[in-house]
Design brief:
The complex is a heterodimer of chains A (about 110) and B (about 120). Chain A is built from no helices and 11 strands. With about 120 residues, chain B is mostly beta strands. In chain B, about 0% of the residues lie in helices and about 45% in strands. Chain B contains no helices and 11 strands. In chain B, the strands form 2 sheets. In chain B, strands 2, 4, 5, 6, 9, 10 and 11 form a 7-stranded mixed β-sheet that branches. In chain B, strands 1-3-8-7 form a 4-stranded antiparallel β-sheet, with no helix packed on it. The radius of gyration of chain B is 14 Å and the shape is globular. The relative contact order of chain B is 0.33. At the A-B interface, strand 4, strand 5 and strand 10 of A face strand 4, strand 5 and strand 10 of B.
Chain lengths: ~110, ~120
Amino acid sequence: GENVEQHPSTLSVQEGDSAVIKCTYSDSASNYFPWYKQELGKGPQLIIDIRSNVGEKKDQRIAVTLNKTAKHFSLHITETQPEDSAVYFCAAPRDDKIIFGKGTRLHILP
Amino acid sequence: EPEVTQTPSHQVTQMGQEVILRCVPISNHLYFYWYRQILGQKVEFLVSFYNNEISEKSEIFDDQFSVERPDGSNFTLKIRSTKLEDSAMYFCASSERESTRITWETQYFGPGTRLLVL
């Protein structure tokens, strides 16, 4: 079955700098990789996703890259802002459920 | 924008009591899910539900748990006899269509119910 590993568990960056969160997965048949953002007291919210037929996808300050050969994918946030502070989860599907990584707590420092 | 809603936002109960967590999925969605998140840990799948029956469940989802779609809008998770280790955040999610290996359908999550078992 699918296993998703996520690093780092905590990340602190200066406001305006970039943040990168990395994940690896185990099931080579996986073909969809969403990223969720969870703010305090709220449920996970989808912020970006990528399918295995592309290597990179961008949405304004957020981008995700996928390396299917190495079975890893990464979230890149540029020009970080205070509102980017949250817990970020990578995920991969297994059957009709989502397997989440353990999460990265991102702190944006003023 | 349509969203998944959940009630209550917080629930405190005594060990051994029954609790029912309620969810209203997005209206045109057909697939429903419950996940839970123990404090500080990752989100874990509990159960998926389609066409009035469970389609998949995890090993966490034992006989103490049940799900139901009592009417056209609500989706509930019942824990029959709560244990201390059931304390967690419970998230409901829904998707419009079934996910397959070819086409994955985005699951939209509700804000969660924080359950505390004393």
